[in-house]
Amino acid sequence: MAKDLICPNCGNSGHAKVVTKGSFIIELALWIMFIVPGIIYSLWRLTSRYEACPKCGASNMVPVDSPRGKKLISELS
Ligand SMILES: [Zn+2]
């Protein structure tokens, strides 16, 4: 189960959405035309995947049960 997170940027709390950089179409095209860049592109997309705030897209959301998360909640409420 996903942990509740809070966004230090906009104060939005809840679950982060997983953002994958790049495009599936480009990935597919690279795989069809050239295998090696396709592998590299797939690996880059997997390693650059991150959790972002669904509201503002910030990638630095913190768990609500962390000291920083608790401080943010008390500041925002
Ligand atoms: Zn946010």
Describe the structure.
The chain is α+β, with helices and mostly antiparallel strands. It has 3 helices and 5 strands. The chain has helices at 24-33, 35-47, 67-76; strands spanning 5-6, 13-14, 17-19, 50-52, 62-63. It has a 3-stranded antiparallel sheet. It has a two-stranded antiparallel ribbon with strand order 3-4. Strand 1 and strand 2 (13-14) form a beta hairpin. It is rod-shaped. Bound molecules: zinc ion (ZN).
List the helices and strands and how they pair.
Blueprint: E1 5-6, E2 13-14, E3 17-19, H1 24-33, H2 35-47, E4 50-52, E5 62-63, H3 67-76
Antiparallel strand pairs: 1-2, 1-5, 3-4
The protein binds zinc ion.
Q: What's the β-strand tally?
A: 5
Residue windows where pLDDT falls under 50 for at least 5 positions:
none
Oligomer: single chain
What class would the helix/strand composition place it in? alpha+beta
**Biggest sheet features:** 3 strands, antiparallel
> What small ligands are held by the chains?
zinc ion
Q: What is the first-to-last residue Cα distance?
A: 26 Å
Percentage beta strand: 15-25%
Helix content: 40-55%
Please work out how many helical segments DSSP would assign: 3
